[in-house]
Amino acid sequence: MRELFATLPDDPPPLPPGYLDTVLTRGRRSVRRQRIGAATVWAVVVLLLAVLVVPGVQLPVQTAAPPTTPSLPDRFAGYSMLTSSVSKAPPGRAIALYGYGNGETFNMFQSLVVGADGDTYRRVDAMEERNRPSALLAPDGTRVLLGDDRGATGELILVDLTTGKRRSIPLGDPVGVRLLAWSPDGRHVAYSAAPLTGSGDFGSVNVVDSEVARTGTLRLLDLSTGRSTEVPAIKPAWTAAFAPDSRRLAVQVGQKAHLVDLDGREYGTVQIAEGRELAANVGWSPDGGFLATVPWISEGPFNGTTGGDTGHGTFLWKVGSVDFVPVTGASTPPAPVQDVVRLVGWRSAGSVVVATINTAGHASLAEVQLGAGTRRTLSRFDTGRTCELGMQSCHISDLHLATGLLPELTVRSAGRPRRGPWPMIVNAVIGVVVLGAAFLVWRRIRPSTRARRREWNDALLAARPAQVGYERTRGSR
């Protein structure tokens, strides 16, 4: 630059027309580019912070009271790996709990709860940490109780869906546990427990459920105190259902349902037909008059020592009927309900909610009017090829509904699923992509130092033709 200025004469010629305007225009253009580039980079940084930080922060907002009327979506959303967990983003009360996925090529299963007040989907991560054991959904849909199918356990885990917190319920010495039924008032849970023979953890194979079904003793858990009461006379306790008053329950042993109160006193029995079992958790009608029975999952009747496949972890597939047995001989039972995969609850004493499956393997929930036999489809499950990276169809297992919400249940049009904040690994990948794009934009918009020097040099050299003409004129003189 100094050499360039040294070549200029003491009395330089006038600048070309419009030269000053050109220099100022180029200067403004450079400044605008710098400002636009800086603004773009800051916008990208803010967006990146929103993607990475905001989803993982639980803001202290006041939770709105849930609607007074619970609802069920008219269709359940498909499989998604971006579904968040209960502990990270509590969903509130749920209308359904079920297993979802497939394992033909990859072991990709989820334990999901679906909101009773909106299209909220969450993974029950406490269940996934215990290899998806059998579990129960509270009648009001606010809690999930789970044991452990991998071996003997010294505690049950109670998950609060409204806060995401977990509560440990000690059981004393480690035992194998099979959860049976939750009382309508939400206070008591019936389960079967037995010491397990064999060593340690059983890994991914669930042998606890069937082992306890053969040798387990009935226990009644009071959730308000955390204390369990053993009923030694009821053994082996296979399946159970509470009466609508929550003060009595029916427990199946062999082919008899023993009627007992909360103190363990037996006051009667009901004969169950060969090859059938009391419908788990929901087998006692709301009017107290009948017990609902369904076919055994395994081939042949359970005799207390052999058989006893509980169907836990098995996809919904076996179609049968729901038969009704009177608790007292004076009542006439309703006609059986045909083409049912699972009985999941009662809308009233005259209607039940069942899971069905068609010839194409598509599952749905339907309400059936007893006596008339008419049915109305409430909701359908997405069982398309969205599992295992789109290579397999999805299947449903361990389906439970919030039974206490069914009498007032409505059906809502399903909206866009709200799955909560994305997993951190997804946020990290997005962050890398956004940063890469921001760097490319910055390089494209921001002029380099060399480019700026070239612009100034071109501007200064624009005067050289006039200078050369001036020197030639002076030399000719």
Walk me through this protein's architecture.
- This protein has 477 residues and is an alpha+beta fold.
- The chain folds into 2 domains: 2-53 and 428-476; 81-322 and 396-422, Methylamine Dehydrogenase, Chain H.
- Helix content is 21%, strand content 32%.
- The protein has 7 helices and 25 strands.
- It has helices spanning 2-6, 19-52, 125-129, 208-215, 424-445, 449-461, 464-476; strands at residues 71-73, 94-102, 108-115, 121-123, 135-137, 143-146, 153-160, 166-182, 188-194, 217-222, 227-231, 239-242, 248-253, 256-261, 266-271, 276-278, 290-295, 320-326, 337-340, 342-348, 351-357, 363-369, 375-380, 395-401, 410-412.
- The strands form 6 sheets. A 7-stranded antiparallel sheet has the order 5-6-7-8-9-10-11, with helices on one face. It has a 4-stranded antiparallel sheet with strand order 4-3-2-24. Strands 12-13-14-15 form a 4-stranded antiparallel sheet, with no helix packed on it.
- β5 and β6 form a beta hairpin.
- α2 packs antiparallel against α5 and α2 (19-52) packs antiparallel against α6.
- The two termini are 30 Å apart.
- The relative contact order is 0.16.
- Mean pLDDT is 81; it is low at 53-64, 304-308 and 466-477.
- The chain crosses the membrane at residues 36-57, 422-442.
- This is WD40 repeat domain-containing protein.
